[in-house]
Amino acid sequence: MMKKMLYNLKSWWRSLRKFNNNVIKLGVSIFFLGFASWLFSSQSTGFFQVPSDKNTHISPPHVDSLSYQQITDEIPPQEGKCNHFIGDWIPNQGGPLYSNETCSFIDDNQNCLKNGRPDTGYLYWRWNPRGCELPRFDPKRFLELMRNKSWALIGDSISRNHVKSLLCMLSTVDKAIEVEHDEGYKSRRWLFPLYNVSLAVIWSPFLAEASNFEDIVNGVSTSEIELHLDKLDTNWTKLYKSLDYMIFSSGRWFVRSSIYYERNTVLGCHYCPKRNLTELGLDFAYRKVLRNLFDYIVASNHKGTILLRTTAPDHFENGEWDTGGNCKRMEPSGEGEFDLSWLNKILREIELEEFQKASTRASENGVNLKLFDVTPLSLLRPDGHPGPYRFFQPFSKDKNAKIINDCLHWCLPGPIDSWNDLLMEMVING
What we know:
Oligomer: single chain
Shape: globular
Number of helices: 11
Order of helices and strands: HHHHEEHEHEEEEEEEHEEEHEHEHH
Helix content: 25-40%
CATH class: Alpha Beta
Distance between the termini: 41 Å
CATH architecture: 3-Layer(aba) Sandwich
Subcellular location: Membrane
Number of domains: 1
Family: Belongs to the PC-esterase family. TBL subfamily.
Membrane topology: Single-pass membrane protein
CATH superfamily: SGNH hydrolase
Pfam family, one: PMR5N
Structural class: alpha/beta
Radius of gyration: 21 Å
InterPro entries: TBL (IPR029962), TBL_C (IPR026057), TBL_N (IPR025846)
Strand order of the largest sheet: 4-5-6-3-11-14-15
């Protein structure tokens, strides 16, 4: 019976700012060709494999980074309301609501404690907004208020990272049961049976229709992605009306070599040196897709709640992923210690600009559209990534082993759990 439920997808699955300088744009493209092919291919064993040309390393062009102060200055003020996204990390002696031993949903490559991470101090901090209180996530109250509701996190592997955090926290009250998944276990749905609350993650790294992006050999894409900028991904659009709450996120996959289509006609590309096509840049494509996403949402007459999650920064130091970059910090950084990287700056600028344009129209149409701005608080947590501990006991055979670090995804439990404190505040009291 359970096997039948797990494979019965039909029942549920049916129901930069554009750069002015073309040289800079080409530099952006070249730099990210290898980076993107490695970083976002899948959660499989090839996820962090080095591209075949290991000797290639091209420095990014100069694009000013953003400090924490500059990031928070960009957040639109909310008259009469506390801004929960501006604050500080403060000690929390209580620690996380769950552990790697009590939660069975944690993916191996984010199970930092099981994999041998020796320090635990990163677990004992909580986000504290300035000028107001942020209650801790209350899983029982959340489930009670969400009874008979459906949730979906729609995006890439960071969305998957986040959904596992939610699953772990909510399962301290009612153990989630997986009821559906796709063939590759990238899109999945769970049910909290005592409350009839549905929680899904929908794999849609571009939010738009794309082909060839699964064509991966040894962690390297064998052809350009074909990305249709004017066609939203049916993986989520076919479910849109049946969902009460949705969190959309994207951005990182746009760094990959892609050919851009509109009305089934080639517009240009992002890093396609062997093709006689116009280089349009990842910023062009990301802005187009977000604009189409918001147009769809604004016109949808949806009566639930829809959130756009902003980009979650990485924290590579002493190099990039392929040049010995690591993340060895063991506590939150102080304001000014880390700046938002130039890629994250580009993605964030587009997100804020397009959201701001859409939010007024959404409000006029009665659509509840919110900005879930995790960038500022996440920037201050360089200590929260798996680093080398995405692998089991990576230094057991050689304490000097050279390990490719993951400084993008988050340990579970870890700082990403605080996203849920904010999420509950937004959807229940916001």
